[in-house]
Amino acid sequence: MQEGSIVSPVTETPERRAFYQKIDEKNLTALWLSLAELVTTEPRSNCRPALWGFGDIRSLMLEAGELITAKEAERRVLVLENPGLRGQSKITTDLYAGVQLVMPGEVAPAHRHTQSALRFILEGEGGYTAVNGERTLMHEGDFIITPPWAWHDHGNPSADPIFWLDGLDIPVIQMLDASFAEHLHVDQQPITRPVGDSDARYGYNLLPVDHESARGSGSVFNYPYARTREALERLRRSDRWDPCHGLKMRYTNPITGNHAMATIGTFIQLLPKGFAGSGYRSTDATVFVPIEGRGRSYIASHSGDEFVVDWSKRDIFVVPSWHWIRHETTAMDAVLFSYSDRPIQEALHVFREDRGNV
Ligand code: 1HN
User: Fold this and answer.
1) What would the DSSP string read from start to end of 187-249?
2) Are residues 233 and 194 in the same domain?
3) How many angstroms is it from 177 CA to the middle of ligand 1?
4) Do 282 and 144 share a structural domain?
5) Which range marks the domain in which residue 22 is found?
6) Does the beta carbon of 110 lie inside 6 Å of ligand 1?
7) pLDDT per residue rounded down to tens, the chain (358 residues)
8) Both 58 and 137 in a single domain?
9) 37 with 83, same domain?
10) What is the total count of domains within the chain?
């Protein structure tokens, strides 16, 4: 048996080779030649561990700010390409990541598409994004959702550049061949609801009495960092720390209790200072974004290759599927935002996780 395979390789004979050539012309191929690659005993992926330092991204983005406007670019974004998946606009096998810059006074024009997006605000205050007729203000650490097919535009009336991380399910929609997109005829969509409307309707442990009939028209779309951070701070007094995750929560849709987005799982975790985490692995390749503090994470593949990430605030790093990860902090508390395809894997009953020693 071949390592990582449930089948043995078959030998070649002249007759077999001739047969393969003959069936090739009919758009046929023999499964026994590819089965070992198609059905592996464990996840095998070209996705690699990687780190992008925010300092580098920030200065390159400001350079991009001199070269092109947000309007001409449609979105002024530098795409984070996984080093094992170059040329595909992927940070993991099925998710996209990019860092977006909106300069003071700029707008990123209104459009909509079937891909879902998350924004995680890295730097700057006072920008806004408008989704389905409602604006929400951006603050550092806020997690903001653009649901599929929702009109959205962004603007920065503040005096400073605003940077955020975009996470989208682009490769998923690509695989499904379900991409649709359109432009609005004006840069900024008409505003039909006051700031805070969705939050008041869905974000206070209350729901509109007829919310069922309004389903699809909205839910919470900004999860402000101030409130998320307060929850973590209160929990640290009472909760037991998880040996792998510290104190980790997932963002939810308050109507369903499910993940906040249908395709992308989103998480926030507090690692206290002096934390030395145990190893953890899961089948959802995960993008991490520290928003407070600094620390070190050790990422190890099944073959034992170790990738050490020294991270600080606003850096971005990725952990491939089924790679061991463990986190360490020293003198400072740290808070990490993360996202993965976990909702898809759970829906398909293929999500697996494992705890142990690296
Ligand atoms: C998009 O619409 C945004 O609205 C950002 O800010 C990144 C990447 C690919 C396709 C659409 C945005 C995107 C995107």
Assistant:
1) SSPPP-B-TTHHHHHHSSS---TTHHHHTTS----EE-HHHHHHHHHHHHHHSPPBTTTBEEE
2) yes
3) 18
4) yes
5) 1-41
6) no
7) 557 778 888 999 999 999 999 999 999 999 999 999 999 999 999 999 999 999 999 999 999 999 999 999 999 999 999 999 999 999 999 999 999 999 999 999 999 999 999 999 999 999 999 999 999 999 999 999 999 999 999 999 999 999 999 999 999 999 999 999 999 999 999 999 999 999 999 999 999 998 765 545 577 899 999 999 999 999 998 868 999 999 999 999 999 999 999 999 999 999 999 999 999 999 999 999 999 999 999 999 988 899 999 999 999 999 999 999 999 999 999 999 999 999 999 999 999 999 986 4
8) yes
9) no
10) 2
Same domain, residue pair 73 and 24: no
Partners of 249 in beta bridges: 268
CA distances from 81 to 87, 191, 290, 314 (A): 7, 35, 19, 17
Give the amino acid at 123. E
State which of 118, 168, 187, 188 you would mutate to test the pocket of ligand 1, scoring each by most atoms of that ligand within 8 A of its C-beta. Answer: 168
Cα-to-centroid distance, 190 and ligand 1 (Å): 20
Instruction: Say if residue 35 is in the same domain as residue 125.
Output: no
171 Cβ inside 6 Å of ligand 1: no
Taking the CB of residue 83, how many other CB atoms lie within 10 A of it? 11
